[in-house]
Design goal:
The protein has about 425 residues and is α+β, with helices and mostly antiparallel strands. The chain folds into 2 domains: about 120 residues, Rieske [2Fe-2S] iron-sulphur domain (Rieske Iron-sulfur Protein), CATH 2.102.10; about 270 residues, Naphthalene 1,2-dioxygenase Alpha Subunit, Chain A, domain 1. Helices cover about 30% and strands about 25% of the residues. It contains 14 helices and 23 strands. Strand 7 and strand 8 form a beta hairpin. The site of fe (ii) ion (FE2) has 6 residues, from helix 6.
Length: about 425
């Protein structure tokens, strides 16, 4: 067995055959995030995305439906669309000009008489391969290649709350993805990033250099002069006894989330002395009333992991999406949302948060990527067979949200939840 409870064989990170099986059995069955509806406003609006290692086009068709289909020409395999997003009446393959509608069907072949009637352009099989299931949850568009399986809402289960909270934080009840984002490629398996995102044990150790320099800078500043990035860097330095007090939740299906761990400054969004927080709070109270606004804004959590490859951080309007490229290569897409109806400074803060945490110039994520590169290299070379996920094993506590909660925040419960889902899907 490659992943018995509490440990994992190194081949799970290094064997190309296991990666190929994951792309079929995990990414071929899961509901995978592909787009946000704010990117698909109006017929012809599209984005390009990946479902596992397969490139797809996500487009709004003239009938207003969102369709997802392979970004691979049925003629001789060229990528049909290389733009990241935009709006088109039709997709024309750059190689020999086959044209496809925004629902993926073939609508034209230049110089088609050369086929001497042996190829029927109306044959549906010549359309771009359609992904059978597409559903939205409050503007988040997911697609699935599974022939059977749960609805999107059932698949997301308790993670719907993260999406609800992300959207409810907009006074207008709508969020939008308008700008671009960051992309970083690392030499390491996709699971290494998922295992890192809810690992409260690593932050103060891996990120010590930025914690220490942030503290040194903060010591020289007047009270209240710290900016967001400085507070973020310091947050990673929370003592491990305090990290243990942060809630860590794991669920069947591989999802997980952690509680918030920013304890001081405007980044906690609890102080009214901060003018941006205070005008945002007024807008929220105006929209929802005091009780409901406090409920929405008071849900203090950090990363929410939707298995297998989506990470949401509703409080700071952040999102990360993993694109597995090969067994030892992954692209991380990082983006953020604008809260419609909130002061514009909230969006500027969200962009700064994204830059400080997830840009290639970040002093945080670059530390993590150094770990992923190092792990991948060592697992490729080493002759020791196992890695261990047993911190907190047998001390997880059943929770009335349908999942489990770690006895302490530094528990490796989220990793075990991921591997329970991995075993289920890979052995199905
Ligand atoms: S490969 Fe697309 S038209 Fe030839
Ligand atoms: Fe980290």
């Amino acid at each position: 067995m490659l992943a018995p409870e509490g440990r994992v064989h190194r081949r799970v990170y290094t064997d190309p055959d296991i990666f190929a099986a994951e792309m079929e059995r995990i990414y071929g069955h899961a509901w995978l995030y592909v787009a946000h509806e704010s990117q698909l406003e109006g017929a012809g609006a599209f984005v390009t995305a990946h479902m596992g290692d397969r490139p797809v086009i996500v487009a709004r068709h003239t009938d207003d439906e969102i369709h997802v289909f392979a970004n691979r020409c049925t003629h001789r395999g060229m990528k049909v669309c290389s733009a990241r997003r935009g709006s088109k009446k039709r997709f024309v393959c750059p190689y020999h000009g086959w044209a496809f509608s925004t629902d993926g069907s073939l609508i034209g072949i230049p110089h088609g008489k050369g086929y001497n009637g042996k190829l029927d352009p109306k044959d549906p099989a010549l359309g771009l391969d359609r992904v059978p299931h597409v559903e939205s949850y409050r503007g988040f568009v997911f697609a699935s290649r599974a022939t059977d399986g749960p609805s999107l809402a059932d698949y997301l289960g308790p993670m719907t709350r993260a999406i609800d909270n992300m959207v409810d934080r907009a006074p207008s009840g709508e969020i939008e993805m308008t700008g671009g984002g960051f992309r970083q490629r690392y030499r390491g398996n996709w699971k290494l990033h998922m295992e890192n995102a809810n690992d409260l044990m690593h932050a103060s150790i891996v990120h010590a250099s930025s914690v220490d320099s942030a503290q040194a800078v903060a010591d020289d500043l007047a009270d209240g002069a710290e900016d967001h990035a400085l507070q973020m860097f310091k947050g990673n330095g929370l003592p491990l006894e305090m990290m243990d007090k942060v809630e860590i939740h794991g669920f069947p299906g591989g999802h997980s989330y952690m509680g918030g761990f920013y304890k001081e400054g405007p980044i906690t969004q609890t102080t009214d002395e901060d003018p941006i927080n205070s005008s945002y709070r007024s807008a929220m109270i105006g929209a929802y009333g005091e009780n409901r606004a406090e409920n929405i804004m008071g849900w203090d959590t950090f990363n929410h992991l939707v298995y297998p490859n989506l990470i949401l951080n509703p409080k700071h309007q952040q999102m990360r999406l993993l694109q597995p490229v090969a067994v030892d290569c992954t692209i991380v897409h990082s983006m953020c949302f604008r809260l419609r109806g909130a002061p514009e400074e909230m969006y500027q803060r969200s962009v700064r948060f994204l830059s400080a945490l997830n840009s290639p110039a970040s002093q945080i994520t670059t530390d993590d990527i150094a770990m992923f590169n190092g792990i991948q290299q060592a697992l490729d070379e080493a002759d020791s067979e196992w890695i261990y996920l047993s911190r907190g094993l047998d001390h997880d506590i059943a929770h009335d949200d349908g999942g489990e909660i770690g006895e302490v925040g530094t528990s490796e419960l989220p990793l075990r939840a991921q591997y329970a889902a991995w075993r289920d899907l890979m052995s199905a």
